[in-house]
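hey can u check if this looks right to u? its 342 residues, i copy pasted from the old doc so theres a chance i mangled smth
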Amino acid sequence: MSDTLNERERKVLEAVVQTYIETAEPAGSRTIAKRFPLGVSAATIRNTMSDLEERGYLFHPHTSAGRIPTDRAYRAYVNGLMWPELPRGTRERLARELNRDAGVIEGILQKAAQVLGVLTQELGVAVGPSFDHAVLERLELLNVSADRLLMVLVVRGGLARTLFVPVASHLPPAAVAGVAQVLNERLSGLTLREVRATLRDRLRDIGGTASESELLNIFIEEADQLFDLPRGEYDLLLGSAQMLADQPEFHSNEQMRSLLELTERRDLLREALRRRSQPGVTVTIGTENPDPRLAAFTLVTANYRCGSLSGVIGVMGPTRMPYDKVVSLVEHTSQLVEDLIA
């Protein structure tokens, strides 16, 4: 808890926060006295709560109601928490779910966001790593339809990314294989930033069949898009917003609609998450968020890193959330993601 609180204030505030997190109902002094062995009377608790309200830690919706924590109260509560170790069963479940998609970054991150959402009952979120400094190990090209190829980029460390390459017409498998061989010979060992900057020059002297030339020209003209990852659908990954539907904060249609509209603002969420580059767990509560449109939400995130690659994994939910459980889950999940992409 905050250094500005004495021991009694700290214990009372912690009790109010825990009660509100569990019940979503304003906490009264008698309820606190019955639920927590604070060693003081309900009257003393009431006076302490009144003092905390004057200092901006609590508020009450109307005169006769109990108190509700403010963002300042949640911050003091989070700062004073000791994060518990996750139960073995939860750790094993997380590892089992994430291992199903090991090796493909978008699969790992999507599963991580989904599982975090289920386990926390919040909205799981993930941001893919910036691949600018990733070193290309190899790429593969596969025919999947008459008008597109599947490209698999494998960067140093074994991490794979997949994306589709649109083509004007069906290309012979031999031409696709020939172009893949040329690209690997000319580009392997470069960072993706170097690939984008020099690809045209590196392919300038390549001949080949008409089909091979057609495909090589696509790579030359579209290099900025094909090797600029991830700025597509996998840049921001979300779990199901339905996980929040049972939260009292979203029981009304209007509140739920506001949440869904927020999840559609991918630019807003992406920017909020990409700012969180510091190592370890970051908890941003309500009005601590730089964007006022996120003032009703808490973001709990942790960075994952593999060499020069880094990204963010976490959850978003109402400020009333079980912070100890959520932080432990987010921290452990980020470590699992690191292990899987290492």
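Residues 128 and 235 are 5 Å apart (CA to CA).
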